[in-house]
Design goal:
17% strand; 6-stranded mixed β-sheet; 15 helices
Length: 583
Amino acid sequence: VVQKDEMEFQAETRQLLDIVTHSLYTDREVFLRELVSNASDALEKLRHLRAAGGVGGGDGVKDGDDDDGGGGGVPLEIRIETDEAANTLTITDTGVGMTRAELVSNLGTIARSGSKAFVEEMKHKEIARDAGDYDPFGQGIIGKFGVGFYSGFMVADKVDVRSRSAGRIGEGGGGGGGDDGDSAVLWESTGTGRYTLSALSPDVRQDRGTSVVLHLKPELSQYSDESTVECILKKYSNFVGFPIYLNGNRVNTIEAIWLQDPKTVDEGKHSDFYKYVSHMYDEPLSTLHFRMDAPLDIKALMYIPSFHQEKYGMGRMDPGVSLYSRKVLVEPKSPDILPEWCRFIKGVVDSEDLPLSISREKPQDSALVGKMRKALTRKIISHLSTMMRKDTEKYKDEFYKEYSYFLKEGVCHDFDSQQALSKLLYFETSKGMAGELVSLDEYVSRCPPESKDIYYLFAPSRELALQSPYMEGFSKSKREVIFVYSAIDDFVMANLKTFEGRNLLSADRSEVDLPQSDGDDSDADKDGQAEKDDASPSGKSLSTAEAAKFCSWFQTTLSTKVSKCKTTNRLSSSPAVVTDNES
Ligand code: ADP
Ligand code: MG
């Protein structure tokens, strides 16, 4: 007869269970994500312990790598079994496992997450960061809240946990030495107030690691259906870094290449991964793979496809970058981690700093996510500006041709990035040839030193722009004017307003005033054009008094159709222009 010890959940745990089972997650199926992520954490811990050279006080787990299942070791993997007849779902991992005492403190209490305690302990031993280049565990494990495990009770009437701790079983032949001996432990609960602990019957095989058996609620039998479970796994856990087998078949095929050192990922791998994340069949136009640890931990792998779909009238694209925390999906196609204009970018962002917890349900509320968006946007813009500088042809002919619209949208909507984005734009100007593109920086570098403004003219075509009466003054004074041919560009200029401290002025605005030619008086003098007209070299100009009389006649005649009539020196062959009111 097996002795069962009946234990009580800590008071907070009971409350939490109540919340979790009834209302915490809007989406039930995330329980699987939680349990798979625990399994993955447990495997990660084991891998880390090995890399750090031993488990606990003993030397039970050798450094040897048994991922391939060779050498008599148990491979590092996650096995999921569905049993429709019994209406159970079992998640097994071959990770660190738990001793009886660990089961009590990790699953019976929530005040202190087991993962958190583990990290503390590792810090104590000062071995957390010695384990090579990428060390996810040393930088903090997912989950600062310890809610995850209890989500199993959203779908199950009863949960059994069978566990055998890696540190105590002496699988390398070194022997145990732990006070629990090498026994496997069974933890059982119906998620109400209590749980029981007992020695696992010897006829139930339990390798190193943990099995979580969910006795599903009768009305939720879909979770013992293989294809349903497969769908959920594909959705949330495809990039888990350990193999996942569902009823013996491998489900996750893609490795988490975004976590690898960018230098080690070749083009072929990028090509495959790109196709996977984007659901597209072209090759990426550009790849942005980086890691940063300040202001927060980020590992990102993003792609710019060779084309975007909005131009085919297929409607607005959804965001294309998914958010992960240590390989576990937090939010597919997250609308929060990048500004909207970046929706053409496809890929994955992984941050260990993101707690895999309640807050994942609403990433948009998180200050962390805000920080992340800022950091990512800055990276993307700097990636583009590097391309613009170093690979100008590609930038102009491939990227800009396809995506300029998105940059312009950003200028109009993403005020944080507006100025940085404006540097990525190109325009035709009055000086260049048709099709010759100039950036605002280039424009400014060619401006005469005394010129404080940037001029642009909106016209349907280059010919019409060049013939426009608005151009007369600019041509005369040899001032370069940016031509914009679409309402969008016109809108961009109006939104941008300034560039590097210079005003962007439409050539049809009344405040535009120009000297007769280069080197004349500064054009900054915006008032008193009428008075200055006496100085016109043609000799045909009106006197100040005549001009005033003429203007007043004009104004009376046109009455409400104009707000003001004044003389100007900007025209040479056209008698008059209509200008926009300075509002
Ligand atoms: P978190 O993962 O955020 O710490 P959970 O509620 O998901 O919180 O899990 C609580 C703790 O239980 C974990 O920190 C871990 O110590 C332990 N645990 C849960 N599942 C496993 C597992 N499969 N193997 C080993 N330990 C586990
Ligand atoms: Mg967890």
